[in-house]
C-alpha cells in the first residue's frame, strides 16, 4: 500500500476524516476533499508530517467544480490508485408528504450525483492503467427502508446499484469495486440531518454506536487485501443494532 494515493471525498468530518488518519498512518498518500477550507487546512497540518497530502475544496454535486478541482491536481497527485466516494449526508427525516424539496435535492445531488461525478473524473485513468480500487460508502439504508427514511434510503439504494454496475463494467480492467455499508456511526451525520435540532443528540444515546475510526479500519482492511481478493459488499452494525429500527438501548 505504501506510496499509493487515495482520494477521499468528505474528508473534513466523520468517516472520511478518520479514514484520512488511518490511511496516512499506513503510508498512503492522500488527496482529501470537502467544502470547509478551515477543516481541510487543519487536516493538512495534522497529517503532512506523516504523509504527502493535497487538499481540494469543491462541492461533489457540482460537476464543473469537481472537474476543475481534479484537473488542478499537481502532477505527483494526479494518479489516484484508490477512490473513496464517501461525501454525503441525510437531510431531514420526514414522511414523504412532508419532505422538503431542498432536502431531497441535496441528498440526490450529493449522495448519488456526487458519486457519479467523482467516479466519472477518476475511473477513466484506472481503466487506462487497468488497475485501481473504488470504495463507495453506502449504508444499511441502502439495504432496507425505514419510516421517514424515504429519499435518503433511495439515495443509498442507488449507491448500491451503482456499485454493482461498476463492478460489472470494470471487471475486464481488473479494478476492484466495493460498497461498505455502515449502520449507525457517531459523526456529524445526525447534526446535519436534523439541522442542529436537539433530536440529533438522542440518536447515539443509550448504546455504543459505531465510531468513525471503526469504519476507517474496515476501509484500510478492505484496501490492503491481496490483489486477488475483492471485498465486494460489507454491512456493519454496532452490536446493539439489528436493523434500521431495532436498537437495544440501556433505558
Ligand atoms: P459527516 O456529516 O460527519 O461527514 C460528511 C462529509 O461529507 C463531510 O466531510 C462533508 O464535508 C462531506 N460532504 C457532504 N456533502 C458534500 C458535498 N455536497 N460536497 C462535498 N462534500 C460533502 O457524516 P459521516 O461521516 O457519517 O458520513 C460520511 C458518509 O457515510 C456519508 O455518505 C453517509 O451517508 C455515510 N453513512 C453514515 C452513517 C452514519 O450513521 N453516520 C451510516 C451509514 C453511512 P463538507 O461539509 O466540508 O463539504
Ligand atoms: C446512516 C445510517 O440508519 O441513519 O446511513 O440511515 S441511518
Total discrete domains: 1
Whole-angstrom Rg: 17 Å
Shape summary: globular
Biggest sheet strand order reads: 3-2-1-4-5-6-9
Please identify, by name, the CATH architecture: 3-Layer(aba) Sandwich
User: Helix tally?
Assistant: 8
DSSP strand count: 9
Bound molecules: NADPH dihydro-nicotinamide-adenine-dinucleotide phosphate, 2-hydroxyethylsulfonic acid
Describe this structure in words.
The chain has helices spanning about 15-25, 35-45, 65-70, 100-130, 150-170, 190-195, 200, 210-225; strands spanning about 5-10, 30-35, 55, 80-85, 135, 175-180, 185, 210, 235. The strands form 2 sheets. Strands 3-2-1-4-5-6-9 form a 7-stranded parallel β-sheet, with helices on both faces. The protein has one domain (about 5-190, about 210-235): Rossmann fold, CATH 3.40.50.720. By secondary structure, the protein is of the alpha/beta class. Helices cover about 40% and strands about 15% of the residues. The protein contains 8 helices and 9 strands. NADPH dihydro-nicotinamide-adenine-dinucleotide phosphate (NDP) binds next to helix 1, helix 4 and helix 6.
SSE layout and pairing:
Layout: E1 5-8, H1 14-25, E2 29-34, H2 37-47, E3 53-57, H3 63-71, E4 82-85, H4 101-129, E5 133-137, H5 150-169, E6 176-182, E7 185-186, H6 189-193, H7 199-202, E8 210-211, H8 212-223, E9 233-236
Parallel strand pairs: 1-2, 1-4, 2-3, 4-5, 5-6, 6-9, 7-8
Helix pairs in contact: 1-8, 3-4, 4-5
Keywords:
251 residues, alpha/beta, seven-stranded parallel β-sheet, two-stranded parallel ribbon, 9 strands, 41% helix, binds NADPH dihydro-nicotinamide-adenine-dinucleotide phosphate, binds 2-hydroxyethylsulfonic acid
Amino acid at each position: 500500500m505504501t506510496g499509493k494515493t487515495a482520494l477521499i471525498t468528505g474528508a473534513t468530518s466523520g468517516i472520511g476524516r478518520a479514514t484520512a488518519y488511518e490511511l496516512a498512518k499506513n503510508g498512503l498518500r492522500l488527496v482529501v476533499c470537502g467544502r470547509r477550507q478551515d477543516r481541510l487546512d487543519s487536516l493538512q497540518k495534522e497529517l503532512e508530517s506523516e504523509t504527502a497530502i493535497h487538499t481540494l475544496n469543491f462541492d461533489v454535486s457540482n460537476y464543473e467544480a469537481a472537474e476543475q478541482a481534479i484537473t488542478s491536481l499537481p502532477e505527483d497527485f494526479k494518479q489516484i490508485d484508490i477512490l473513496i466516494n464517501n461525501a454525503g449526508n441525510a437531510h431531514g427525516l420526514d414522511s414523504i408528504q412532508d419532505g422538503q424539496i431542498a432536502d431531497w435535492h441535496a441528498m440526490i445531488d450529493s449522495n448519488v450525483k456526487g458519486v457519479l461525478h467523482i467516479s466519472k473524473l477518476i475511473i477513466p485513468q484506472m481503466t487506462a492503467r487497468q488497475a485501481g480500487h473504488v470504495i463507495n460508502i453506502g449504508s444499511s439504508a441502502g439495504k432496507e427502508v425505514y419510516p421517514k427514511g424515504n429519499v435518503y434510503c433511495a439515495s443509498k439504494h442507488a449507491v448500491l446499484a451503482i456499485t454493482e454496475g461498476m463492478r460489472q463494467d470494470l471487471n475486464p480492467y481488473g479494478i476492484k469495486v466495493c460498497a461498505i455499508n455502515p449502520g449507525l456511526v457517531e459523526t456529524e451525520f445526525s447534526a446535519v440531518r436534523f439541522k442542529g435540532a436537539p433530536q440529533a443528540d438522542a440518536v447515539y444515546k443509550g448504546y455504543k454506536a459505531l465510531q468513525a475510526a471503526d469504519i476507517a479500519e474496515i476501509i484500510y482492511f478492505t484496501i490492503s487485501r491481496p490483489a486477488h481478493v475483492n471485498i465486494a459488499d460489507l454491512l456493519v452494525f454496532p452490536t446493539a443494532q439489528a436493523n434500521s429500527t431495532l436498537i437495544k438501548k440501556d433505558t
